[in-house]
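Record pair follows.
FIRST:
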Amino acid sequence: MLFQGSGVALITPFDPYGNVNYAKLEELIEFQILNQTDAIIVCGTTGESSTLSTEEKKDVISFVTKKVNKRIPVIAGTGTNNTKTSIEMSKFAESVSVDGLLLVTPYYNKTTQEGLYAHFNAIASSVSIPIILYNVPSRTGLNISVDTVLKLSKIKNIVGIKEASGDISQVAQIASKVDSSFAIYSGNDDQIVPILSLGGVGVISVLANIFPKETHDICNSFLNGDITKSRRLQFRYLDLIKQLFIEVNPIPIKEAMNILDFGVGSCRLPLCNMETKNKKILTNVLKNI
């Protein structure tokens, strides 16, 4: 598997002019590694990949990979709704020595289950590094069926799935059918313990941007047999996790980081500043924690 434990879905910091803030990005990388994050996922949904240009994505992926320097795995989000573009980005990421890829399902134009298999198979055939599928139908409008996951899991370098469907029954069905070497990661911070209990091996986390050690500990405690501690930590952060999605991600996590003086800047349009009433709710939850 690519990693076990907590992988942070890293935000992309911007300066006051809306450019990628590389000095701040380096700070965030070091903060994550210092606090025991098990992997860094760059240019995913939380990293605002949809509003980064192709050149910016390449620069960010290259920068993060170079700065991490193999201390922990770096996984690049290279999935799009265009198979050719996904292949080109995946080949580039491989060329700069990322450790793996995160591939979201095609969105907007979507496809059939047969098309999903063909799409992911084409990308997997173009590279040799490990791939994690990303199932998030609330954003893409497309669910990877259990049978399709099983079929894809037999492709040599498709090694896992980030399951953010919110459907625990579907996760259970996947876990019951795939080989034990196929890694299942929670894509929802409020379902880390439930998915670990079904045989999952970790989480790709938004929460970890501000609480990397604690998110690592939720996973590590469970995997080392301390279920009570893992469950207690999951419960402790449930309210914050809820408020981190009070508006569309990554608006709240960036707001939370700025409240906590990380200084990561605003989101790019069409994502906008958080509503005042929601910022107050988020601020109060952070104060309580």
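SECOND:
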Amino acid sequence: MAPLAARLLTGLVLAGGVIGAVLSLPPLMTVGLFACVTVLGALEWSSLAGLGRPGLRLLYALLTITPVALAASSASPAAQLLWLAAAGCAWWVIAVAWVLAYQRSGAPAPRGRLVLLVLGVVVLAPGFAALAWLLLRDPVHVLVLFAIVWSADILAYAGGRRWGRRRLISRVSPGKTWEGLWCALAGTLLLALAINAWLAALPPLQLFVLVLATFVAAVFGDLLESLLKRLRGVKDSGRLLPGHGGVLDRIDSLLAAGPIYSVALYSLKL
């Protein structure tokens, strides 16, 4: 199967599975499915960090979802999950600074096995917590979040291939272009306006703030994983998903966008 065909087919299967799970399964069961995905992502992250022994990698993956399990089983799960997501937002401010500093001057990026393993926890756990919080709040928000992230990814890829000329952030991810970024932003905002008109949910200004913040977070989630892969000298985080690479390659944007989207929803009182 050609790479593009494999990519499209895998994407359709994944999208259908997520939408079906969110719409048809009880929220707690869907949280369990997202936990399994997070564990797979953590296994790949531990490999990128240089953790070789399978038993240690599995232990690390289980430890990664432990904070979310503890929060979900607490007396006030929604509040605890939101706190975890907010902690993730604080981390992404640092991550953005790291990525931009690396692009400007090749400044030191996170290195060393222990440092990278800790960073994996602060990336994966808040991202999973945000999804759990959204599912418990209203599953529709999960679908909106996925729609923003998926449209940003697809349109950036398509726009970059068609019109891409100027590299966006060449030291980190040479394949990304400014033209792809603007196509993705414009298309994502139009999609959000269409969804919002259907749901009649948000005033335009609040919608713009929510989508823009989520979009920017998704971009930097992708860039951070690209930086990690560049440091390790690999193209993909794994080979599980034909045409896409590993699980981490599919959820990197979501891990950043989820906490930002969740905290923005809460802050805007939506």
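COMMENT: Residues 3-267 form one domain.
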